From TrEMBL:
Enzyme class, broadest EC rank: hydrolase
Annotated transmembrane regions: none
Manganese is among the record's keywords: no
A molecular function GO annotation: hydrolase activity
Domain called Beta-lactamase-related: residue spans: 6-363
Enzyme Commission (EC) number: 3.-.-.-
InterPro entries: Beta-lactam-related, Beta-lactam/transpept-like, Diverse_Enzym_Activities
Organism: Phenylobacterium conjunctum
Tree of life domain: Bacteria
Keywords, alphabetical: Hydrolase
UniProt name for this protein: Serine hydrolase domain-containing protein
Length: 380
């Protein structure tokens, strides 16, 4: 299988200083078929990208945390549809944004339905991000509320943008799912994932904190400037009250490939076949899954498959139809804020990862690189 189209496109993007570098991996159920690194970990420095490079994978964290939560469902410690207020006191009196008052200030009212694990995992709980909801962004601006990225638990108790179960919006539901995991398991989220998810899969380079060795292998986050990409200061809160289950992990392409093989039913199996089927079943109305960005400096608008009836399952976006670039219908996919992307195709038994570190999200050129990787992987 030739990956010349992808490699040529990546080399061109690096040479033109459109990105600093990237690592790509394609795997089948038996192991990695292809891995390629090109460029630098930090623009302007001589340390090259390689298979050992660590990336902040941001929202690619969500699938791992979701699998961790589903393991607790299988263990009988959680159910998908119970009212989680029994475990999470903040869920007992949640408010919903309900327009603005005469002075232009956001109004709220009590939520009319409960928060459940199914709703958290499928982004139908009503929890949003400021960058996906202008209404929530306006509320935060009007109230001076702290952002959940601060790591404060109090900052995570924000108003919902609709009643739980009534709509879809991409948001902090999986951060709350991490808090639910801690309440149900009695373990801190990092320890729980290490014991029940990343450890069994052999994902030794995946975690919320970097060791000195890992920090030395980490890629910098970049933005584009007048002279090309340039690194920017970046760091997550070192000791957050709430570990960011929606976006706090670092990992490598190889580690994430191990997780994709599990999603495709191979290697160490963390979930039963029945739970894997449920994970890959649409939990939302068809035709949702992307978002309009309220903060263009953080993310572009993201609709990876316009016209396809995509929707969210219990861990990932589901593409029910063939993509036209190789993937079969029923494939699983999502991404991370700094332009990291993956797919897992359970029908064909093939998955892929593309890791960069560039803001804002949904960069058109990186998306084209991801598409080129998929096309070469399938020989399309």
């Amino acid at each position: 299988m030739s990956y010349s189209r992808f490699e040529d496109a990546l080399a061109k993007a690096v040479a033109e200083r459109r990105i600093a570098g990237a690592v790509a991996l394609v795997t089948d159920r038996d192991g990695a078929l292809y891995e390629h690194a090109h460029g630098a970990r930090t623009a302007g420095q001589d340390v090259a990208m390689d298979a050992g490079t660590l990336f902040w994978i941001a929202s690619m964290t969500k699938a791992l945390v979701s699998v961790g939560a589903l393991k607790l469902v299988e263990a009988g410690k959680l159910t998908l549809d119970e009212d989680l207020a029994r475990l999470i006191p903040e869920f007992a009196d949640l408010q919903v944004l309900d327009g603005v008052d005469a002075d232009g200030k956001p109004k709220v009212r009590p939520a009319r339905s409960p928060i459940t694990l199914r709703r958290l995992l499928s982004h139908t709980s009503g929890f949003a991000y400021g960058f996906t909801s202008p209404d929530l962004l306006a509320w935060a601006t009007a109230t001076g509320a702290a952002d959940p990225s601060s790591g404060s638990r109090a900052a995570h108790k924000q108003p919902l943008v609709f009643d739980p179960g009534q709509d879809y919006i991409y948001g902090i539901g999986i951060d709350w799912a991490g808090v639910v995991i801690e309440a149900a398991s009695g373990q801190r989220l990092d320890a729980y994932l290490a014991e029940h998810v990343t450890g069994p899969l052999g994902m030794a380079d995946t975690g919320f904190k970097l060791s000195p060795d890992q920090a030395a292998r980490a890629a910098s986050v970049h933005v584009r400037g007048p002279e090309g990409v340039m690194p920017i200061p970046f760091g997550l809160p070192p000791e957050p009250e709430v570990l960011p289950g929606g976006g706090g992990l670092y990992s490598t392409a190889g580690d994430y490939g191990r997780f994709l093989r599990m999603l495709m039913g191979s290697g160490p199996q963390l979930l039963s076949e029945a739970t894997l089927r449920e994970l890959a079943t649409l939990q939302t109305a068809p035709g949702v899954g992307g978002f309009k960005s309220a903060l263009p400096g953080m993310s572009h608008d993201y609709d990876p498959y316009p016209g396809m009836p995509t929707g969210y399952g219990l861990a990932t976006l589901i593409t029910p139809d063939p993509t036209g670039d190789g993937r079969r219908g029923g494939s699983l996919t999502w991404a991370g804020l700094a332009n990291t992307y993956y797919w897992a195709d359970p029908v064909d038994g093939r998955g892929g990862v593309l890791m960069t570190q560039l803001l804002p999200f949904a960069d058109p050129e990186v998306l084209e690189l991801f598409k080129a990787l998929e096309r070469d992987a399938y020989g399309v």
